[in-house]
Amino acid sequence: MLATSLLKSNCGQRLCLADKQTISGTGTYERGGYIYSTLAGIVNIKKAEESSVIYVHSINDQSMVPVPGDVVTAKVTIVNQRFCKCIIKCIKDTVLSRPYRAMLRKEDVRATEKDRVEMYKCFRPGDIILAKVLPMTDVHCYQLSTAENELGVVIAHSEAGVPMVPISWTEMQCPKTYVKEQRKVAKVIPENRLNSIM
């Protein structure tokens, strides 16, 4: 196991053993029981609930990278029956210098009744969501979850182009036309954010 959270690495350099306690993150890959760096940069270790995630970011790009457990703000770009594609714009309160691609699968939308989730009734292209980053399974795309009450849609526009107001866990309403649209609504929306979009 690496002893420090800030080491320099070279592309292809073997970093450490890969096991249940140490998993590969952004800028790394796993092969033959070891984790290797995919680029020259700074090695970071972030401790998750039951494991540590090893990731590397370029020396030339000092922006943050999402790691499992982070709550991120993302914009929904594509919605289909099985998943929606998103662009991660912020990690916690930090606006990223470059966005990251992400995917939210149907089974990660809610904690209960996962088989009854209809993606188009939860999200629409253009929605701004809060989501949690899951452990990576694809090197090129982050996996997101909105299975907690505090996660889901925080900003959405109606078909009339007006910012909508949440009225329940599953609905938002256009203040202009009073038309209701279904969404997976996040429980907590800061009052100042609501005032700024109304």
Describe the structure.
The protein is mainly β and 198 residues long. The chain folds into two domains: 7-58, RNA polymerase II/Efflux pump adaptor protein, barrel-sandwich hybrid domain (OB fold (Dihydrolipoamide Acetyltransferase, E2P), Beta Barrel), CATH 2.40.50; 71-197, OB fold (Dihydrolipoamide Acetyltransferase, E2P). The protein contains one helix and 16 strands. It has one helix at 191-197; strands spanning 7-9, 14-17, 22-24, 28-31, 34-37, 41-47, 52-58, 71-79, 83-91, 94-105, 128-133, 142-145, 152-155, 165-166, 171-173, 180-182. It has a five-stranded mixed barrel. Strands 1-6-7-3 form a four-stranded mixed beta sheet, with no helix packed on it. Strand 8 and strand 9 (83-91) form a beta hairpin. It is elongated. The termini are far apart. Mean pLDDT is 82; it is low at 1-6 and 191-198.
Number of domains: 2
CATH topology of the largest domain: OB fold (Dihydrolipoamide Acetyltransferase, E2P)
Total beta-strand segments: 16
- Helical proportion? under 10%
The number of helical elements comes to 1
- The sequence of SSEs as H and E is EEEEEEEEEEEEEEEEH
Distance between the termini: 50 Å
Strand order of the largest sheet: 8-9-10-12-11
Query: What is Rg?
Result: 19 Å
For the record, the CATH class of the largest domain is: Mainly Beta
Q: Please tell me what the overall shape is.
A: elongated
Q: Quick one: biggest sheet? A: 5 strands, mixed, barrel
Structural class, from secondary structure content?
Answer: mainly beta
Tell me the quaternary state. single chain
β-strand percent reads: 35-45%
**Could you report the average pLDDT, rounded to the nearest whole number?**
82
